[in-house]
Amino acid sequence: MSGWIDLLQACERGEVSRRVFLERATQLAVGPVVAAPLDMTASVSASTQHPVAQTDGPESVLARADDVRSTAITRHGAYLCLDLPPATARAATTAIADLIQRLDFRNEFDAPHAPSDRTIGFLRRASVTAGNIPDRQLDHAAVVLHLSSETPEPLDQFRTQLARLVGPAHRPTTLAGVVRPLRYTGNAMHNFAYAHRIVQQSGAVMPAAFLMPLSKTAAWWKKDWMERHTFFLPRYDESGRMVSQGHALAAAAGISCLMRRTYWNAQEPAPAGEYDFINYFECSDEDVATFREICGALRDTKRNPEWTFVREGPTWHGRRVPQWEDLFR
């Protein structure tokens, strides 16, 4: 207990930073972990027994739960950005169809699919809007292919074969990332933002697509996770008046009409020259205006202070099409 008192007093005197306080508080909270033996002869099954304290040493050590939530990767995704002459694209049509079938990719235009399915989506450029981060490859991409799989190998195989088919002069640029369990989302936020989220629909129902890669600044990554978390929530003054909406409320209008997908870089923060996040959205043509309103709300740093720390790549607006050959018509 004295460790907690010393730490709190040091914090009150301004002798430790927020980050150091959190690191030391975590150490004090975790403490030594000792596995408690289970009585296998008891009438209650081992899986329902409660851990007990170990008391056979010079001093008692409290038994602790082992209930750390996983941050393991659950899915891999990639956007392959291409600018091909129509003749080159047409020459590859049959081989691309064979490759998709051999690797067992399901066409996203015919969504929905099972969460475990490997999927491929075909996107044809409608427009591109520049961001803070120059990205010539995405600016000039006439088409984008989306691939997803529970493991990275099918994505790597497809990308390698596609590069061979289109030739070195037209090798695709890849924006890749991973899916992990949600980080800042407790039950209440999950029920607000994700419980009834829009899943992927047929391309005939939701044909509009937006690819929005971005990164956070070095100042963002210097913050501890608790401070980062606060930027997703509203902020209130001492009288209880809301002074900023935060990310969750600024984007709330999209919950009922946008399909949302985010891939994280496998490293955090991302290596130089790569994005921290690859964001993607689909919607009906009628809801494109809502999408643009949400983007405006998120970029308004008075409503959403988080965006002070955001640097955007281009916003690539595309149309979902049924097949490879439709990309070049």
Q: Tags for this entry?
A:
alpha+beta; 2 domains; two-stranded antiparallel ribbon; 11 helices; 12 strands; 22% strand
Question: What does this 3D model show about the protein?
Answer:
The chain is α+β, with helices and mostly antiparallel strands. The protein folds into 2 domains: 32 residues; 254 residues, Alpha-Beta Plaits (2-Layer Sandwich), CATH 3.30.70. Helix content is 28%, strand content 22%. It contains 11 helices and 12 strands. The strands form 2 sheets. Strands 1, 2, 3, 4, 5, 6, 9, 10, 11 and 12 form a 10-stranded mixed beta sheet that branches. Strands 7-8 form a two-stranded antiparallel sheet. Strand 7 and strand 8 form a beta hairpin. Helix 1 packs antiparallel against helix 2 and helix 4 packs antiparallel against helix 6. About 5% of the residues have low confidence.
